[in-house]
Write a structure and sequence with these properties.
This protein has 183 residues and is an alpha+beta fold. 22% of the residues lie in helices and 32% in strands. The chain has one domain (38-179): tt1808, chain A.
């Protein structure tokens, strides 16, 4: 639900949002307050982040999992706050409020965000050269929609209900069932 605030740049927004109550994103210059979160959504975010952390640890990769609360800058007028993200390479500064080079981005669907997650966030995340995978978790159907950067401008999509999601580049896999809390 957009607010009646003035249009902002990503830099202005990040300064404005820091320390503000609630969770906010910047959509094409407009500050958008995110809806209050339900326990089920929070449980799914935690389960997904934990499963990704465990899989990264097993693969021995120099990557770090982040949960929501950190911004990903899409462009000068847009920042999103995914439910989880992974960055590889040098560790992020402890004072950072945004992740500069996410390799994997995760969103857990909720009724109020599904259209945005499948639309503008899909194209926005893949506008970043660093993003290799975008996982959309549908907790109601226990389905992972795995969007992967393909050759050229192509984005390859797989719908996974079981088995593993192979996240080549950075090079690990995670069991689909591990991304969801027990039913």
């Amino acid at each position: 639900m957009p607010t009646a605030l003035k249009q902002m740049t990503a830099d202005e927004f990040l300064l404005w949002a820091e320390g503000r109550e609630g969770r906010w994103e910047l959509h094409d210059g407009a500050a958008v307050m995110m809806a209050p979160e339900r326990v089920a959504h929070n449980r799914n975010k935690l389960k997904a982040a934990t499963a990704l952390q465990d899989a990264l640890g097993a693969a021995g990769l120099p990557c770090e999992v982040f949960t929501d609360g950190l911004a990903i800058r899409i462009d000068a007028r847009t920042t999103y706050e995914p439910d989880a993200s992974i960055a590889c390479g040098p560790r992020a500064s402890p004072d950072a409020i945004e992740i500069d080079n996410p390799v994997i981005v995760v969103e857990v669907l909720s009724p109020s965000t599904a259209a945005i997650d499948h639309g503008r966030k899909l194209s926005g995340y893949f506008s970043l050269a660093s993003v290799q995978h975008y996982l959309i978790l549908d907790p109601d159907r226990r389905v992972v929609i795995h969007h992967k950067r393909g050759v050229g401008d192509a984005i390859e999509t797989r719908v996974l209900t079981d088995g593993v999601a192979r996240l080549d580049s950075p090079g690990f896999e995670v069991a689909v069932e591990a991304l969801f809390p027990q039913a």
